[in-house]
Design goal:
With about 160 residues, the chain is an alpha+beta fold. The chain has two domains: about 1-55; about 60-159, no CATH class. About 25% of the residues are buried. The protein has four helices and seven strands. Strands 1-2-3-4 form a four-stranded antiparallel sheet, with helices on one face. It has a three-stranded antiparallel sheet with strand order 5-6-7. Strand 5 (about 80-90) and strand 6 form a beta hairpin.
């Protein structure tokens, strides 16, 4: 099994969740907010604080398994049509890129926990590209290639 870690970003997200949780906890003693605000703040902060450390992507013989902050998903190798880098935009100062898994039925799974941010003119992120190469190598080890998917779909279309 190959595990891909989001790197330092999951700890940044964890720290933000912890701050939100502490803000929610600080409102409890004198309860100066509405119940809804307190529940949302405690719920979101607690959830992010608990889930962020386990956010990752793993690859095994069955397929790709994604554990995100708000989404868990498994995609079998037979369902994977392509694995590619997806630019997510930027603000002129930074560009963001993540790994996208496209399935044979047209669905897309953005592996957001693997996103990388790059300063400057380049929109490619080296860490994202290394993770992409790792996913491709793992897929080939288990018999998946984009060429095989294209050939399979051509064969099905001609029948």
């Amino acid at each position: 099994m190959t595990k891909l870690s989001p790197g330092p970003w999951k700890w940044v997200i964890w720290a933000v969740g912890l701050v939100v949780l502490l803000v929610g906890l600080s409102t409890l003693p004198d309860f100066r907010g509405s119940e809804f605000t307190v529940v949302v703040t405690l719920g979101m902060g607690g959830w992010i604080t608990l889930v962020a450390p386990i956010a990752r992507v793993s690859v095994d013989a069955r397929g790709i398994r994604y554990w995100g902050i708000f989404k868990w998903k498994r995609v079998r190798w037979a369902e994977v049509a392509a694995i590619e880098a997806q630019p997510l935009g930027g603000n002129g100062l930074m560009a963001t890129e993540a790994v996208m898994v496209r399935t044979v039925d047209g669905r897309e799974l953005l592996l957001a926990v693997l996103a990388g941010h790059t300063r400057g003119a380049s929109s490619t992120n080296r860490r994202v590209r290394r993770q992409l190469a790792t996913l491709h190598k793992a897929g080939m080890r288990f018999g998946w290639t984009e060429r095989a998917v294209r050939e399979r779909s051509r064969g099905a279309a001609s029948e």
